[in-house]
Amino acid sequence: MIASVHFPILQIVLPLLLAPVCVLLRGARLAWFTALTASWGAFGIAVALLYDVLAGGPVSYAVGGWNAPWGIELRVDAANAFVLTIVAGIGAVVMIFARKSVEHEIGDSRAYLFYSAYLLCLAGLLGVTVTGDAFNLFVFLEISSLSSYVLISLGKDRRALYAAYQYLILGTIGATFYLIGVGLLYQVTGTLNMMDLAQRIGGQEDLRGVHVAFAFLTVGISLKLALFPLHFWLPNAYAYAPSAVTGFMAATATKVSVYVLLRVFFTIFGVDFSFGQMPLGEILMILAVAAMFAASTVAIFQNDVKRMLAYSSVAQIGYIVLGIGMASVTGVQAGVLHLFNHALIKGGLFLAMGCIAYSIGSTHIRDLGGLGKRMPWTAAAFVAGGFGLIGIPMTAGFVSKWYLVLAALEQGWWWIAVLILLSSLLAVLYVWKVVERMYFQPAGGTGETVERAEAPLGLLIPTWILIVASIWFGIDTRLSAGAALEAAKTLLGAG
Amino acid sequence: MGGEFITGELIGVESIGIAMLWALLIPAAGSLVIAWLGRWPNLRETVTLVTAGALFIDVLWIVELYSRNGGTALTLWEIFPGLGLTFTAEPLGLLFALVASSLWIVNSIYSIGYMRGNGEQNQTRFYICFAVAIASTMWVAFAGNMLTLFIGYEVLTLSTYPLVTHSGKPEAIRGGRTYLGILISTSIGLLLLGLLMTWNIAGTLDFTPGGVLAAPLAAGAIGGPMIGLLLFLYVFGIGKAALMPVHRWLPAAMVAPTPVSALLHAVAVVKAGVFTVVKVIVYLFGVDLLANTPEANWLLYVAGFTIIAASVIALRQDNLKRRLAYSTVSQLSYVVMAAAILAPISVVGAAMHIAAHAFGKITLFFAAGSIYTVAHKTEVSQLDGIGRRMPWTMGAFTVGALSMIGVPPTVGFVSKWFILQGAMQTEQFVAVAVVIVSTLLNAAYFLPIVHAAFFRPPPDDDHAEHGEAPLPIVIALTVTAMGTIILFFLPDLPLGLARQLGIGG
After folding, report:
1. Is B177 at the interface with chain A, CB within 8 A?
2. Which among B185, B188, B199 has CB closest to A391?
3. Nearest Cα residue in chain A from B161
4. Do the chains contact at B78 and A414, CB–CB below 8 Å?
5. pLDDT category, B1, cuts 50, 70, 90?
6. Potential cystine with A257: which of A225, A369, A409, A438 (Cβ 3.0-4.6 Å)?
7. Cα separation, A41 vs B67, whole angstroms
8. Are B146 and B198 in contact (CB under 8 A)?
9. Given this model, what pLDDT does residue B238 score?
10. Per-residue pLDDT tens digits for B90-130
11. Total structural domains in chain A?
12. Residue A60, strand partner residues
């Protein structure tokens, strides 16, 4: 098939070209439909690519017919095909959610701006994921970052502007650090293609330029993925962005940055250098464990549930990074698997918050009293998602924790295994704080009558798609854990 | 990644696999129908009773099939490569399933009387959660490996949480926090770690006669201290077994309505706990392996300590349900201690005591709830002379109390007999002493209640006019009291199963 050869580029071109179309169309409904087509199209292509790659090995695509290392190469292997699927999948599901939610929170007159920025952001994230060129990655990273500043600033609350500004500053610093790192590597090796870089760095590991590049890349990427203690932009951005944006970003933006981390340190630098010569493993694991405890503890004391979930994200990123920091097949598998599972769980939870914001107009914990009766389906979705965060069996969260603990035990690090399990008990505290409020407190002191105020189906269905998926991948793990294992093997084998 | 979704023999009515699936599906489907019929209470309660009856028949059918063909493993699908959702029928699980499913019938009859008698809110939610709890109990009973069991164990915790907090009052929420907090933190923090370590060491979590740790031990992969540590993780990770100091959830859960207390103490929850402990000792560690590991000896002393300490605490409780709760803590450790004696005959005693305590304790709780429903009395000191007004209730209470003490002709005597025999055989005189002292303590905190109820005059200021409890309650507590006596004379069914366990172990 001719089209399937071009899948890697179509993946990016489709949302990129349809983004200006949204602006031209103006009408909220038409723009939404265009964006829906683009995001589902991208998802379809991502799934096709995943199957191609799992069956037939890596796919390489030379943009414009210019072969690597002179032209830009798009390269899809098991690792990024998997990330691609989850990013495009979340993008597609959230787009269903967006129509009602955007109409409510942003308004029809500005909706086309939202859809256009959303598609640009999606195109950027997908581009970061498929590209095999280190500089091209920076370009796509900036596309996604710039459009996400716009998306966040569309939030109803004026504090969204400050949050977007804060993210802009820190995100730019992160991207600049990344660029400096890539520049130094170019100076040393004279190439930007990742595979080429990997080969040419071999033998030059002792050069100071490589070491400095390594340091810049580590800090830059850690900022983008909100690794503790470089996470300060995240809670505000998630809390004040429009609900659909929070759901989308939480499940994709940081995940793509984690992928960049994997790509840079496993493929370009190689495991032996990153984790053998450089103390990356120790640094990542210490910061990850700190994130798991510190961010979870902070989450317990949050009163806005969106903020609480944002801090929980910082903690969950800790789990992902912890697995990666172990640099063993099971560890990386656990990290990649949790990247996938957490995207589903947290996406579902943030969409549930979107349902609440739609019906109640607030996600503050004091306003959630009696929600179990007023919005039974939304409340149930929150409980199911919360189980996933805690890691109750038969949820995706349990599967990730299983592999993560197993990876720690394989290395003989039983204290890390203990820390993982102890920190997941902190999740019980913040999840249960909300559950008790929703089910045991009567509706808040505003004197509202306890009426059914369930969110419309247009919001409930996408929420439940993600929640059901998070349960499904807790029961049948063949696809998720299998693909994560392939990804881990690819990443470690390449080094 | 491929492979069959379901493996194991699934064809024909005689398939034990099908019958086990039904045992999970019947209560699960029942909960859905109950939810659907919530608006018509009479119909809803009929469904509960029919479901309970059908489940009991199905479990009997499984026992019959097992005695004919033996058990086969049924793997639904693999959650992790080489580690599936597996169900197997084996004697201990069958015994537990029999106890739970038969008592569910009686408990349902009782629930109807109690919940209506007290005009409780949210009854539909109550019956739904009850059915889900029973489904997860069956899941635990038939689990073929530790992961499967763990899943059922967690579902059981979560499905009973809304029952414990049923009233929604602040003290119920607080009790619920303790309940969930202790059970979840022990199961995730310790039990899950233990089973992951076992999986990492042995490469299997299947329940295997003789245990799965013998090979790694022989190969030198682990030593005695590791086995001691694993035992610690399991025994305290299984918070439902209420070994001190992880017993506090049980008294905290006393805020629940009485049928729920009966569910917790007799039918499902604590039984799932001690069942899991026995299962782990017999099928994961192996009795012989533990007997040869000095690092595992401490379990006997911890269990013995819990038996005595909980009895002493029970002695000082005036609230009747709290006294019963501490009595449960003590009685559960009988099961753990019996298993920890590590003699085949005492393992039989452990299995029998699961059944014996279930029938005795459910009778006691039924009686306590009966008194609360009719007379609104909750304290032991208020019970003077109540036996004359409520002869059936207090008669049943007496039978239950005698079974707790272990006086013939009640089934409590049978299990204590086996436990003592095991202790004698292995010359563990500490265990013998514990049994004797605790029997005296049991008598000390139960017999005064019986004496006060029948032989003391009612207080002068007691003008409340009440007679016996509503009929469903009286039926339920009479049936279980009779069960306690019948099982003494006809212990063949449970004992037969328990003996197979002794041989297998």
Report:
1. yes
2. B188
3. A436
4. no
5. very low
6. A225
7. 58
8. yes
9. 93
10. 888 999 999 999 999 988 888 888 888 777 778 888 889 98
11. 1
12. A75
Helices vs. strands in chain B: H and E counts, helices first: 22, 2
DSSP A80-139: HHHHHHHHHHHHHHHHHHHHHHHHHHT-HHHHHHHHHHHHHHHHHHHHHHHB-BHHHHHH
Q: With CB atoms and an 8 Å threshold, state whether B173 touches A425.
A: no
Chain A CB within 8 Å of residue B79 CB: yes
Q: Does A392 contact B199 at a Cβ distance shorter than 8 Å?
A: no
- Residues above pLDDT 70, as percent of chain B: 95
DSSP-derived pairing of the beta strands A59-62 and B74-80: unpaired
Q: Which residues of A touch B192 (CB under 8 A)?
A: 405, 421
**Helix, strand, coil content of chain A in percent (nearest 5):** 80, 5, 15
Q: Are B152 and B137 in contact (CB under 8 A)?
A: yes
- The contacts of residue B416 (CB under 8 Å, 6+ apart) are B334, B349, B353, B406, B435, B439
Helix (H) or strand (E) holding A323: helix A305-326
What angle (nearest 5°) sits at the alpha carbon of residue A29, between those of residues A27 and A31?
Answer: 65
**What ipTM was reported for this prediction?**
0.87
pLDDT of A136-176, one tens digit each? 999 999 999 999 999 999 888 888 899 999 999 999 999 99
In a domain, A117, yes or no: no
- Of B141, B155, B181, give the one whose Cα is nearest residue A393: B155
Contact B196 A417 (CB under 8 A): yes
Token pair listed for A267:
């493929």
pLDDT (tens digit per residue) in A404-414: 999 999 988 88
On chain B, the residues whose CB falls within 8 A of the CB of A481 are 80-81
* Phi/psi at B75 (5° precision): -105, 120
Q: Which residues of B touch A440 (CB under 8 A)?
A: 165, 168, 173
Helix (H/G/I), strand (E/B), else coil: B183: helix
Contacts of A478 in chain B (CB under 8 A): 1-2, 78
The answer as to whether A441 is a domain residue is: yes
Q: Which residues contact B504 (CB under 8 A, 6 or more apart)?
A: B90, B91, B209, B282
Indicate whether A101 belongs to any domain. no
Distance CA B305, CA A331 (A): 42
Provide the pLDDT confidence category of residue A493 given band limits of 50, 70 and 90.
confident
Q: Is B331 helix (H, G, I), strand (E, B) or coil?
A: helix
Q: How far apart are CA A322 and CA A289, in angstroms?
A: 7
A250-305 pLDDT, tens per residue? 889 899 999 999 999 998 888 888 888 888 888 999 999 999 999 999 999 999 99
CB contact under 8 A, A428 and B165: no
The residue length of chain B stands at 505
B226: left (phi over 0), alpha (psi -120 to 50) or beta: alpha
Mutate to test the interface with B, among A377, A389, A433, A440 (most CBs of B within 10 A): A440
- pLDDT digits 0-9 by tens, A170-188: 999 999 999 999 999 998 8
On whether any CB of chain A is under 8 Å from the CB of B151, the answer is yes
- Supply the range of the domain harboring residue A315: 279-495
Residue with tokens 């944002």: A310
Q: Does A232 map to a domain? A: no
The ranges assigned to domains in chain B are 16-504
Burial A272-303 (b: 16+ CB within 10 A, else e): ebbbeebebbeebbebbbebbbbbbebbbebe
Say whether A475 and B79 touch across the interface (CB within 8 A). Answer: yes
Which of B85-89, B386-390, B479-483 is least confident? B386-390
| pLDDT above 80 for B158 | yes
What is the mean predicted confidence (pLDDT) over B413-421?
89
Option in B2, B177, B196 nearest A409 (CB): B196
The Cα–Cα gap between B473 and B462 comes to 23
